[in-house]
Amino acid sequence: MSEPTRRADTEPDATRPRTSTRDPEILRRALRSWLRARTGVEGLDISDVEIPQSNGMSSETLLFDARSPRGQSTGAEPEIQRCVVRLAPAADAMPIFPEYRMRDQFEVMALVGARTAVPVPRTLWYEADPAVLGAEFFVMERVEGQVPPDILPYTFGDNWLARAGAADRRRLQESTVATLARIHALPATAEELAFLGDLSADGDTALRAHVDGWRAYYTWAHGERPIPVLEKMFGWLDTHWPAAVDAPVLSWGDARIGNILYRDFTPAAVLDWEMAGIAPREADLGWLVFLHRFFQDIAEFFGLPGLPGFLAFADVAAHYAALTGYRPRDLEFYEAYAALRQGVVMGRVNQRRVRFGEQEAPADPDGLVNHAATLEHMLDGSHWG
Q1: Are residues 143 and 5 in contact, defined by beta-carbon separation less than 8 angstroms?
Q2: Residues 150, 246, 254, 284: which is the catalytic one?
Q3: Is 254 annotated in the active site?
Q4: What would the pLDDT profile of 90-115 be if each residue is shown by its tens digit?
Q5: How far is CA 188 from the centre of its chain?
Q6: From CA 81, how far away is CA 337, in angstroms rounded?
Q7: What does the alpha-carbon distance between residue 268 and residue 104 come to, in Å, rounded to a whole number?
Q8: Could you count the other beta carbons within 10 Å of the beta carbon of residue 80?
Q9: Which residue of 172, 187, 332, 355 pairs with 265 in a disulfide if CB–CB is 3.0 to 4.6 A?
Q10: Which CATH architecture has domain 24-141?
């Protein structure tokens, strides 16, 4: 999750995992030198540098304003470019993922921005040399808007989305689904998207490659201490594999409302493309639905109503079908696949919290997965009634 603007209704919270081990002042000086060399503007300065409290747990975010001296000789105000840096985490920060494809994110955002109506921040510069900031990074424009908060979750109430009326939440839901439909319709060739996977593969082959990639990630993250409930979920996928899989599309990967900046309950910027790949379109739909269910379950655990009925899979699928003519299928499989993927990620996140002394290591490895009970209900079928 990224932070390209100050997020409304989100305050620093002691429960948020540690996200950065870098010194912001060192980053500022290095970034100023690099940007002066990159732009050729000797007097360019960096100001209002900020590492957000709600910084992501995968790639890191740095906010800054680039102030150009142009126009000062005539008494004009300096030109200001509001920017966001996304960079891979430092090695000593126990990264969530084994690799950080910053150039891939930069390229896919540029492609989506150029060829679709999907709102993505304008990409500005990419830097491959890790010597500049300690890791490869890219810079994009900063977009203003509101994001449904993760901490405390938007399902807990007392935030802009929870306070919204039913019609506004419906507009947010439907405009988000429409954004997914536009991403999936990206007019690009297999060669142009080859850096993300094989767009020309048949649907079954693409899905197996996608699942195999997540299995490899699970082995990297948890091979030394396997998590039984996740092992069982991989087996469940094998025994419930779809009989037919439609042709793959560009998959956003981290398709959830917490990765979208909204204005007037419609997307203003689609963020976080680090999980982008080639997959059946249901992979994004399942992730969108399950990540809301994840936060809804947390709210209900604490006796709160949450947002019942919001982002229900049947409604999401029906609206997607109305927009595209494609009717999503095998919804249980893709919701379970999303729950498994979230389990792999959260297991790594909680390992990281243990590493930094933010929580105790659980005696049972399943305790690393916040929604282990939900996965068990999926395994016995009771999750779907």
Answers
A1: yes
A2: 254
A3: yes
A4: 777 788 999 888 999 999 999 999 99
A5: 22
A6: 40
A7: 22
A8: 12
A9: 172
A10: 2-Layer Sandwich (3.30)
